[in-house]
Amino acid sequence: MLGHMRSSITDHNTHKAATRRNRRWGAILVVMAALVTAFAVAAQAGPPVVPRLPGPPPILAPIPNPGYVGPTPNITKVANAIYVRAKSLQIAVHANPGLVLTQPVNVIVQFNSPDFRGLSQNAGLYDSSRGLNVGFMDDIKDGLPRPVTVTITLRENQYSFTIPGPNTIIVTPLFNATISQGKFTLDQDCDIVGDSEIHFGWRAPDGSWHEKGFSMSANQSRDVPEFNWWVNELSQQAIQKFRYPTMGFWEHDPGDVGVASPFVQPGIYPIVLPAISPQTKFENLKDIAGDSSCFGHFTYSIQNSPVVIPNL
After folding, report:
1. Which of 204, 197, 207 is nearest to 182 (CA)?
2. Which letter, b or e, does each residue of 2-11 get, where b requires 16 or more Cβ atoms within 10 Å of its Cβ?
3. Low-confidence ranges of the chain (pLDDT < 50)
4. Among 26, 81, 102, 171, which lies 20 to 30 A Cα-Cα from 229?
5. According to the model, what pLDDT value does residue 53 have?
6. What is the pLDDT of residues 156-205, one digit of tens each?
7. Does residue 166 have a cis peptide bond before it, meaning omega lies within 30 degrees of 0?
8. Is there a contact between 133 and 92 (Cβ–Cβ < 8 Å)?
9. Of 205, 199, 203, 195, the residue nearest 184 (C-alpha)
10. What whole-number distance in Å separates Cα of residue 248 and Cα of residue 200?
């Protein structure tokens, strides 16, 4: 009786493996027939690979300095020492320390942005030991570049001087986009006896193909740290060239053949900004080789955060 049961299980697994291989080869033939069209579409919509390099350095904004002459020597000194730095959503008006003044000079800076919640006015007193740093952080709003007008006025007692303008800076919000490592959970066994040999494959936001294999049973989970992906200090337009990752899995028995990557095409949905709080993604998955009784799910999170430069 025991020998008959073993023989039945062996025959069932042999038939199951043969059925899976037939399904896979049939699916591969169908997919191969559509590869030319699929890859043509992917070539058009697929994002380019962008190296993970630091973003652009802060820019010196175009505040002209033809040799200002203010109403007092102190105002003249500070006016000609002022320069502006800008990066991402930030603008900072600076003057280096070291000027010798006989009277305090107050610097009032107005930042007028179409995306800000109102006209922002900040002020700072020039300090010979620390210089001057008057900063501004714009709102994200739609995340697109926008002009910000900077008006700088210096005051000493009853005297006042406004640096000629208009001085307009194009503010381009920059973002860091991060996709966390993922976790694959097998919800239903692919093999009746023993562990299922799972191969998990995915296309990263840049379209590159990756695979990871593990042996597991139903209701078990495996971390996929290689799923982690990020880009730093890119504009919204640059980040939206990337796509949300796509993924799939298949149960790989000894003797199985075939190419899995054509089954998982590059994503078509761009990574959308802004998403300041992490967004958890839950993907239900079935065996892409055609075993309808074999399924699982995959979870990961994505977060986009604006670039903030300390001490700009």
Report:
1. 204
2. eeeeeeeeee
3. 1-54, 259
4. 171
5. 41
6. 999 999 998 778 999 999 999 999 999 999 999 888 788 888 989 999 99
7. yes
8. yes
9. 199
10. 6
